[in-house]
Amino acid sequence: MLLSEQTYKRIDREVAKFPPDQKQSAVMAALQIAQDETRWLPPEVMQDVADYLGMPAIAVQEVATFYNMYNTKPVGKYKISVCTNLPCQLSGGEKAAHYLKHKLGIDYRETTDDDLFTLVEGECMGACGDAPVMLVNNKRMCSFMSDDKIDALVEELKK
Length: 159
Fold this sequence. Notes:
Number of strands: 5
Distance between the termini: 32 Å
Order of helices and strands: HHHHEHEEEEH
Structural class: alpha+beta
Strand content: 5-15%
Mean pLDDT: 95
Largest sheet: 5 strands, mixed
Radius of gyration: 17 Å
Low-confidence stretches: none
Helix content: 40-55%
């Protein structure tokens, strides 16, 4: 087993939400929990999740590659998704993205040399009225991202 005992216990809590013959229904939660530990989902971790849930590895890989919240390639400690949909772009998103790229010295789909930040384009995050919007590690929504707020976020994450 590749993951920690604590991670398997968290997966077990998700599996318990479904009938015993439908363990595979917990695949999305299991992938997220595994990714919380490993930062990304290498093939061997996806295989381990598949074995644990009793499902074909290809089915787990299909889920992991379909949804953009799963990292199938290595990422930095903090993956920052910048909303690139039209409402965010019209409300300063392009400017915010340019500022963040310049500040971090990377472009979309790149990771800083210190392995701290990865920058990715994100689809609609459902907060158009809060544009420009960014999401940190698929869990923390950051709204109204001005240059000052971007500076504060980056400094906070560096600590």
